[in-house]
Amino acid sequence: MKSLVCLLAAVTATVQPSAAHAGDATKMMHRLRNPKGGLIIVAHRGCHRAAPYSDMGPVPENSFAALEKCVALGVEVMETDVRRTRDGHLVMVHDETVDRTTDGHGKVSELTLARIKMLHLRQDMGGAAQQVTDQTVPTLAEILARAKGRILLNLDVKDAIYGEVVAEVARAGLQDGVIVKTFAGTGSPSLAAIAPYDQVPFVVIPVSGDGSGADVAGIVDAQMAGARCPLAIELPYIAAPRLPPIAQRTRTLGVRLWVNTLFDGFVLGGFSDLDALRDPDAVWGRLCSAGVSIFQTDEPAALARYRARAGHRPLCG
User: Fold this and answer.
1) Mean pLDDT confidence for 34-62
2) What is the DSSP string of 91-153?
3) Is residue 206 within 8 Å of 223, Cβ to Cβ?
4) If both were cysteines, with which of 22, 61, 107, 153 could 74 make a disulfide (CB 3.0 to 4.6 Å apart)?
5) How many CB atoms lie within 10 A of CB 2?
């Protein structure tokens, strides 16, 4: 039987985003916890891409500038990556090395914080062709301080440091201002009630045993059966025909469904950011209608514009 804690989330009223909610992380979290709270935008590694409709150019991924741009665009969640330096500090770097994103070289785990702080971030998603900027690599403590009260952070923990990350979040007093997520398979217990996931808003990513996605619905059931439930289910790569029964199950259970339109799109067959830029109704609109209400994207400005153009018509509610 589904727990009372999880059932309560399913009966709350629909809340649509408004200009008054922009930059108010408490209201953003309230909407996120509400399965009928409308479309939620997660900016992958922050709002690093150019936003031509808002006259904003590109900025480095996982940077203070990427966070500020997300706040300006009214994005609810900035996804950002956490790694540990050689001397035990937590920093916001996606890759194992700093080579792609900065003007330096080497593994994060082999560099000290002092050395990493001497580096400068490259524009957008980096690479040798991208110009070096004045932006530097933030620590987790610094990005938490910058985000506090203004935007939610989805912390993608890249090393085996979940306990350290959650402890840093607690020191910042931001236990209700972040999202932490991890993977679950058919043999996993209900993770939302297990430390340290029980201390922060938690999202689970079901991992199909054979890669087909056939067992994802069963994993969702198991993860929603505990005393404490995840606030969303993030889908792995699945074939489009697998989506409807999973979406129906998450609706029944009263939990949000999260899909990435990154790269080639995690729902296979024409559901990528590139497809969405050409025809947002065919991607974001179609996925909304199917039951998805959280989108992680490298095109948050375009998705925010699509949501705004919907006006008072509920999107993903």
Assistant:
1) 94
2) E--SSSBSTTTBS--SBGGGS-HHHHHT--BBSTT--TTSPB-S--PPBHHHHHHHHTTT-EE
3) yes
4) 22
5) 16
